[in-house]
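USER: Note each token:
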Amino acid sequence: MSQTKFDSKVLSVIEDKIRLIKIDKKAIYLVGPIRLPVNLYGDTVVFKWYCWLNCDEVTENYERIIEKLSSVNLAELQQSSVLVYGDFSYSDDAIIRMHSICHTGDIFGSKRCDCGYQLKKSMKMIVEHGVGALFYLANHEGRGIGLFSKALAYILQENGYDTVDANRKLGFVDDSRNYNDAILVLKALRSKPVTLITNNPKKLEALKNAGLEVAGRKPLWGDISEFNENYLQTKIKRSGHLEEERICPND
């Protein structure tokens, strides 16, 4: 365990960037904003980046929380974050994306899904709109089943099961994602209405059920190919995703 003691100057810099969000007897610690220049389709775009951490201890003694981190291997745990663009807190019109992590799509560029496309496209939409935020939800892999189980589900999909049945045959529900923490962070950053970038009505319901005013919805279909056609059709036919465009390859 580290015995490092933060000097007052270092602590004052860090404390200024930490915010406490209370959840019953637990807490979310939100750190940021941090200037983050991003390569987006060849252009450099500067976002404001925040990251958050769930903790059993509720305290505004941030020195205590920081000192505890050195005894916890956070690299083995997942933390979510949010990219903010423009005057997100005060602008009347902002768009947001609740994006679930997809190791294969976001990192490797897998064509089995449309996640990598949706990640970059929604960031571009936010920048073009002028104000918005992308929430990157790290505990949502495979619609909540985790990366290893997702790999097993892929094997079932290669043997004729669709995404819904593959998850269920492994003992999971088809979608166990939870948006509560992200919604609490959203409320801490903004009180005005938002427009949600999504095809998934469950995300709209989650925001509305939490008392958030949703001004509208922007669809996000694209990167359709022979590799993900069945995946996209299953989203529409079995998971209730809203279809604005005909989903077929080579459109």
